[in-house]
Specification:
about 500 residues, four-stranded mixed sheet, three-stranded antiparallel sheet, about 10% strand
Length: about 500
């Protein structure tokens, strides 16, 4: 396997993720081999040298690809493992993460940089497949006081790695569509590539490189609502622009389209125009990146609405975004669902895409616990930002990146009157935003003071407590309702306009 890599008959194409393993991952891989554990198979695709599928190959820690080979294999699954092994055993100079030694006394692998003093009992892993270096290592070990004990350990290490077998499963004479289907079905213990990861990587023409195109797009939309888009999203936008379905097996048709005169330049230009419009359309919602559009389906439908010229009313699109987020309309939807809605738009009908069938319960925020990344949590945070949430003591507008969550009620106060289960204190309607100084003050005085008392403190300090507290959906009076009833009222206040189909008041 190492010899294959040396002569570049086994390569990692550019579309593969760059090396992302950490130091612990590398050490655990080497430890598995030392113990004789299986490390999984490597999946490759045999390529004829004349096939121009790829835009290039990763060279760290692998050597530069040679041009003279009549055929070679590309790694489809197992790039992180192969990079670790080749770097540690053949090319430790490629990076500190590959400079691993085996401590014969402690019988463990360690990174050379973490060793205070490297001694003769530390065997460089890069010496195991270099006979002259390993002979020198043996000589050094034999001179140690405990050399007779350590030398057999070094020889065991040498023979274990020399004899260890890595199963390689090679797809031969497989067309692109079949390879993509293998991707779809393969189940790997690592992080296998998705079909879109693979399609993205193809060299459509020598003058067109999708990876470079996507890097340009990433720079273009930095600091806009589209910042942080996934490459999967962009390639599906390209498929929409090219008139293809979003099924992974159909997206590969981009390969054939790229072979036309001009390749995909026209589709890329159309996609750029639509994305520019979409970024401008979403900017008033104070969205700070794609992660604040919780569903991939939402992102693709928004793109399609703009691309097909069906985003006639910004208010209608904004209302759809809010309602689909809090209704969780697009949760766990398959590709076929998204394709069906986009095909309807291609035919001139946006009603299916804009239809929200799931109802929104006005008590939703009083029932959902905060969970990072969930649609309702993302929507809640975005909703407070758009309302210009102000800290409940000083009235300062809270930046959510530096703001601190505080509790209106602790859990002991949230016991239901009907004797039901006590909810978590982290339910969304129980969370309010503070500036850091206000958060500390709130924690100190809240146990001793009612909400009405704190409201009066805010009024005394600012003279505008009603406006400040209403910015977070809190409307007096506070002492006439049970804590749970008050949280349900707050939830209804925050969601009222959305349930009614209105657009929340948007503030910078």
């Amino acid at each position: 396997m190492l010899r294959q890599i040396d002569r570049t008959a086994l390569r990692i194409p550019r579309f593969q993720r760059s090396f992302v393993w950490g130091e612990r991952d590398v050490l655990e891989l080497l430890g598995s081999i030392e113990k004789g554990y299986p490390i999984g198979s490597i999946l490759t695709w045999k390529i004829d040298g004349a096939d121009e599928y790829f835009s290039g190959f990763r060279e760290t820690p692998f050597p530069p690809a040679g041009d003279s080979l009549g055929g070679y294999e590309v790694v489809l699954d197992g790039a992180q493992r192969l990079s670790s092994l080749y770097g540690c055993l053949r090319n430790a100079e490629a990076g500190d993460i590959y400079r691993v030694v085996y401590d014969l006394r402690a019988r463990e692998f360690v990174h050379a940089g973490s060793v205070a003093v490297e001694g003769g009992w530390h065997v460089p892993m890069s010496a195991l497949f270099d006979s002259r270096r390993f002979l020198a290592v043996q000589g050094t070990i034999s001179e140690l006081d405990d050399g007779e004990t350590l030398l057999p350990r070094a020889l065991d290490l040498y023979s274990t790695f020399q004899d260890y077998q890595v199963p390689i499963i090679a797809l031969s004479n497989a067309p692109l569509e079949d390879v993509v289907e293998v991707f779809r079905r393969v189940n790997s213990s690592g992080t296998p590539l998705s079909p879109v990861d693979f399609v993205r990587a193809l060299t459509w023409q020598s003058s067109f490189d999708l990876e470079e195109t996507f890097e340009d797009f990433a720079a273009r939309y930095e600091g806009t609502p589209l910042e942080g888009f996934s490459e999967d999203f962009l390639i599906r936008c390209l498929a929409i622009t090219a008139g293809l379905s979003l099924d992974s097996r159909d997206v590969v048709q981009l390969k054939a389209l790229s072979n036309r005169h001009g390749g995909l330049d026209g589709e890329i230009a159309e996609m750029r125009v639509a994305l520019d419009v979409l970024a401008g359309l979403l900017a008033p919602l104070n969205i700070r990146g794609m992660k604040e559009i919780p569903y991939e389906v939402q992102r693709l439908l928004l793109f399609a609405l703009v691309h097909y010229g069906m985003a006639d009313s910004a208010d209608e699109v904004w209302s759809w975004f809010w309602r689909s987020t809090f209704a969780e309309e697009h949760q766990s939807k398959p590709e076929s669902y998204t394709t069906r809605l986009i095909n309807a738009m291609r035919a001139g009908d946006a009603s299916l895409a804009l239809d929200i069938r799931k109802p929104i319960d006005s008590r939703l925020l009083a029932e959902r616990t905060r969970r990072a990344g969930s649609a309702v949590t993302v929507g809640f945070d975005l909703l407070l930002r758009n309302r210009g949430a102000r800290s409940l003591i000083s009235g300062e507008i809270v930046d959510q990146q530096s703001g601190v969550h505080g509790l209106l009620f602790d859990r002991s106060e949230l016991v239901p009157e009907d004797g039901g289960e006590t909810p978590s204190a982290r339910i969304l309607a129980n969370l309010v935003l503070f500036s850091p100084p206000d958060a500390e003050a709130w924690r100190s005085i809240r146990p001793e003071m009612s909400l009405s008392g704190l409201y009066e403190v805010c009024e005394a300090r600012t003279g505008s407590a009603e406006e400040i507290w209403r910015s977070q959906g809190l409307v007096p009076p506070f002492d006439t309702l049970s804590p749970i009833a008050l949280l349900e009222r707050r939830s209804a206040e925050l969601l009222g306009g959305i349930i009614g189909g209105d657009v929340p008041a948007m503030r910078p």
